[in-house]
Specification:
This protein is globular. It has a ten-stranded mixed sheet with strand order 4-3-2-1-5-6-7-13-9-11. It is an alpha/beta fold and 253 residues long. The chain contains five helices and 14 strands.
Amino acid sequence: MALTKGDKKKIVVFTGGASPLPKDAAPFFKNILEAGQKPDIAIAADSGLETLLAYQKYFSGLYDFYPAAVIGDFDSISDKKILEQFDGRIIERASPHKDLTDTEMALKKARNLAKGKKAFVTLIGGAGGRSDHFLGIFSLFGSEDAPDAWLCGEQVFWRAERSAFSVGGLKAGDIISIARAFGKNSGGKIISRGLEWESPVFRKKGLPSLSNTIKEEWAKKGKAVQINFKRGSFVLILPLFASVLLDADSKRK
């Protein structure tokens, strides 16, 4: 079963910085795509193009990551000659003195290419390196251009607003954390089942839950953790390999 209910365009944005190896991201793509389905759109931001090419090679014949747009000032790309293999019409060069980052530009492009339709946007990359770059991406959560999922290192940061998550594939000791979207320090409502420390004891300010885990008895039985974000703007942080079913815009009580 695919990740989301309903017909949403699947868009993948590759940005610079460290990213999961394609083989490690394979369970994630199997989770978000129906059998035989391919991403509708792929976009590369600056040196994210190099990551896109690595994924294109690894998933050849399975997923098509050929870019619909390549965006950036290309100050961090290691070999600018790779741009020559693409149609110049998809390359959007930006000034190095621009207000938006290459990642922000690519995410805006993703929403624009969805042409008003609902889209599920995955961002890959942006881990490691400078801490301010990491914070710049995290600050996007809660904004209209936020990714729905951000593959960062060995974790996935999930946008969690009025949505219910069923998280499977976890074993005892696997870490689950919940943060508030950037600029939010309190408020909201979360209901959980299957966690070692359940939602009634979540912190009312700051990070609601840090380094939480699945209950041992739930892990032994292979049961999925249920987390329902009723109100507020949050980020659910899960292992990259976790299996997720997402009921977006949940109105369940």
